[in-house]
Amino acid sequence: MKFTLKIGLFLLLPLLLWKCDSEMIGYEGKDGVYFMMQMPPQSGYGEQERWEYIDTTRINFASVPGNDTVLPIRVRVMGNVTDYDRHVSLRVLHESTAKQGEDYEEFNLNPLLLAHERQVEVPCRLIKTEKLAKEELTLSLVLELQANNDFVLPLPWWQPFGDIYGNPMDSVNVVRHVILLSNEIRIPAFWPEEYWGKWSIKKFDIMCTLFSMTLDDFNELNRGEDTRARIMGQNLDKYLKEREKDGKTIYEDEPDENGDLVKMTAGKNI
Length: 270
Hints:
alpha+beta, Immunoglobulin-like, 4-stranded mixed beta sheet, 3-stranded antiparallel beta sheet, disordered N terminus
């Protein structure tokens, strides 16, 4: 019995030493920070802590209601929670093509991480500008965390574990985050020309505003909603005629083959 007990303690000793050593490592060194930006699973549900980490956030305004959206930039501490406030430092890299005051509003690059908190969220308001609405282009806002008196950058890369964490073969940069702004509009699978007239990006943008819809909402429509499509066409026709009556006729962006302006119209079967 004593011999068995000695064997058990002998086998258990390395494990206890490893555990003790691991705990000590967790408290060594200066606390660090990293971007905790994630992608929700397709269902949109599940434990948020387990959502996939990403180093690029794509904002397609065609799928966003209105002309702006606020993205929370989340930064988390790797290390200890303290009983005093600390500052996080970010910077916008020169390679960014989005312009402050035009494509995004100025935001706090030195947010305060409050005492007893493990993370801070910095709201960044992104704007759908006229150039983005008319042109097929993608703008970038590139952010990078900076070491300061409160934090270092001990974790430049995150290796996913698979499952909803992401592909374990990919590495995610968690000190540099890229926000891509676009307005990628493609004609929905269901576009009843007999009610809505010919497709154009300008008309689609007007209809999104008129009906408080996004590209995703249009993509969910189908031919089984013929009545709804006809009513939408009637409202579009009413809107266009009211604008014309007020002397504010809406023309398509593209002229006809003769170079003349083309008045925007709804379909013929409304």
